[in-house]
């Protein structure tokens, strides 16, 4: 009998993409983790408040709405919220070429992108900690 599981390591995924100058993947991965962990926090909160049909509502939320709700619930602080928003904006520029292109041509742009991604990794860890805190509060 074999066990199937997934190792979730956002730092490695983001770092690997960055090392390969795959900026779209790096930023998309970071934003995906914001969305994944954020949605889990919101679902748990809705469950605890016995909000009906919350699964449909959360399933249709975009990442911007998810992080806004995390901020309103004080699950992330103002600084983290701002960093997350910058990461989402940068991801949007990269995946929508009319907003700024698919990659970076200059080292200054790459350096700024690396800084944003380091901030993003910190934010992912803060959201995960908020999720763990929420879980321990329910126990």
Q: Explain this structure to me?
A:
With 139 residues, this protein is an all-alpha fold. It has one domain. It is 73% helix and 0% strand. The protein contains six helices and no strands. It is elongated. The model has no long low-confidence stretch (mean pLDDT 87).
Task: Offer a concise description of the structure.
The chain has about 140 residues and is mainly alpha-helical. Helix content is about 75%, strand content about 0%.
The number of E-state strands comes to 0
Helix proportion range? over 70%
- Termini separation: 32 Å
Total number of domains = 1
- Summarize model confidence as the mean pLDDT: 87
- Which residue ranges are poorly predicted, with pLDDT under 50 across at least 5 consecutive positions? none
Strand content: under 5%
Structural class: mainly alpha
Task: Tell me the layout of helices and strands.
Elements: H1 10-19, H2 23-48, H3 54-59, H4 63-72, H5 78-95, H6 107-138
């Amino acid at each position: 009998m074999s066990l199937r599981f997934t190792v979730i390591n956002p730092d490695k995924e983001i770092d690997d993409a960055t090392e390969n100058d795959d900026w779209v993947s790096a930023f998309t991965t970071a934003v995906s983790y914001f969305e994944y962990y954020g949605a889990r926090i919101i679902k748990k909160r809705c469950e605890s408040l016995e909000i009906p049909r919350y699964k449909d509502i959360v399933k249709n939320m975009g990442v911007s709405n998810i992080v806004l709700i995390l901020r309103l619930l004080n699950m992330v602080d103002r600084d983290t919220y701002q960093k997350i928003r910058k990461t989402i904006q940068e991801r949007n520029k990269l995946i929508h070429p009319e907003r700024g292109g698919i990659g970076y041509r200059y080292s200054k742009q790459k350096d700024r992108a690396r800084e944003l991604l380091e901030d993003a990794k910190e934010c992912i860890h803060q959201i995960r900690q908020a999720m763990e805190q929420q879980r321990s509060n329910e126990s």
